[in-house]
Amino acid sequence: MSNLITIERHILEQQKYFPEAHGELTDLLTDVAFAAKLVRREVVRAGLVDILGFAGSTNVQGEEVKKLDLFANEKIISAIGQHGRFAVMGSEENEGIIIPPKNETGSYALLFDPLDGSSNIDVNVSVGTIFSIYRLKGDDPCKASINDCLQHGYEQVAAGYVIYGSSVVMVYTTGHGVHGFTYDPTIGEFLLSHENIITPKSGKYYSINEGSFAQFNDGTKKYLDYIKEEDPATNRPYSTRYIGSLVADFHRNLLTGGVFVYPPTTKHLSGKLRLMYEANPLAFICEQAGGRATDGRNRILDIQPTSLHQRTPLYIGSEEDVIIAEEFEQGLR
Ligand code: AHM
Ligand code: MG
């Protein structure tokens, strides 16, 4: 058998970069990987166990049926929250912060989107979990508050995502490269499959919901005309790829090169995606892989968060492609 590396072992090896963390970061990333396995178990059985449907109804066992995103949210909160490693948590599904039990021993804050891509959940298209980890600002975990969650993206100590797709893949960074692991269901382990992911400087895909064209500003409309023009010297036209699950769209472009854009629209003036649960973790990963992530003007990781569920426009992916999209957004082209 070749040299198989499990995610737990890989995380343990990253500990050398964090001598001051006394292995805590290792434990909590391992907890996240464990929670991902629990969510995976339900996602792959979704149609079988009658777990789909609307929250509030009952299944054949007489148990309350939960929508999969609510189920994932509860699983992550209970699987990760019970160990006392996080002093505070924030979820896209919860309005306010979550203070887990035994939080007095935690030194970190966890922000997560339990199941991203909600429109794809019931139709067997890839969905994912996204997470982001920060060190507490103060020394006393009992005083952990929303301020520990509202940190700049550049203050993240780790971030990652899991895609529940044709195979299940977990990707994470602690600021020392981006590493991907594929789940082997026969042994119940995530195995290293993509070490040190580097994203191409430019790609051939663009990912945007063009159905919202009428709601875009002139810069975005012009950009779309540009990207579809014929010009072999710049590899145009690009091909459209849009799944509607941010993690899946992001992951594809990370590996193949390309650009994902969720611009401001007349419906979502600040874009639709959430800074704390979606943009920041993916921006951290993208930059670590040599890509670029902005809101069309500013680096995502530099944005000062003001609320847990704040939204932002998102231009993310291959550096050269993101710069071109930004230039149109800023009216420079
Ligand atoms: P969600 O958190 O409700 O799932 O919304 C986020 C999702 C992203 O995964 C995806 O990129 C985007 O919404 C798609 O939105 P749209 O349908 O407007 O294109
Ligand atoms: Mg989401």
Bound molecules: 2,5-anhydro-1,6-di-O-phosphono-D-mannitol, magnesium ion
| Beta strand count | 14
CATH homologous superfamily (4th level) name of the largest domain: Fructose-1,6-Bisphosphatase, subunit A, domain 1
- Using the CA coordinates, give the radius of gyration: 20 Å
Nearest-integer average pLDDT = 91
The level-1 CATH class of the largest domain: Alpha Beta
Binding site for Mg(2+) 1: 92, 113, 115
EC number: 3.1.3.11
Pfam families: FBPase, FBPase_C
Domain Fructose-1-6-bisphosphatase class 1 C-terminal: 200-328
Give the key terms.
single chain, 333 residues, alpha+beta, Fructose-1,6-Bisphosphatase, Chain A, domain 1, D-Maltodextrin-Binding Protein, domain 2, 2 domains, 7-stranded mixed sheet, 5-stranded mixed sheet, 8 helices, 28% helix, globular, binds 2,5-anhydro-1,6-di-O-phosphono-D-mannitol, binds magnesium ion
Structure explained in plain terms:
By secondary structure, this protein is of the alpha+beta class. It has two domains: 7-194, Fructose-1,6-Bisphosphatase, Chain A, domain 1; 205-330, 3-Layer(aba) Sandwich (D-Maltodextrin-Binding Protein, domain 2), CATH 3.40.190. Helices cover 28% and strands 22% of the residues. The chain is built from eight helices and 14 strands. The protein has a seven-stranded mixed β-sheet with strand order 1-2-3-4-5-6-7, sandwiched between helices. The protein is globular, with a radius of gyration of 20 Å.
Summarize the structure.
This protein has 8 helices and 14 strands.
Outline the secondary-structure elements.
Blueprint: H1 7-14, H2 24-44, H3 68-81, E1 86-91, E2 108-116, E3 127-135, H4 146-149, E4 156-164, E5 168-173, E6 178-184, E7 189-194, E8 205-207, H5 218-228, E9 239-240, H6 246-256, E10 259-262, E11 273-274, H7 275-288, E12 292-294, E13 311-312, E14 314-317, H8 319-329
Parallel strand pairs: 1-2, 8-9, 8-10
Antiparallel strand pairs: 2-3, 3-4, 4-5, 5-6, 6-7, 10-14, 11-13, 12-14
Helix pairs in contact: 1-2, 2-3, 5-8
This protein binds 2,5-anhydro-1,6-di-O-phosphono-D-mannitol and magnesium ion (MG).
Organism: Chlorobium ferrooxidans DSM 13031
Pfam families: FBPase, FBPase_C
Enzyme class: hydrolase
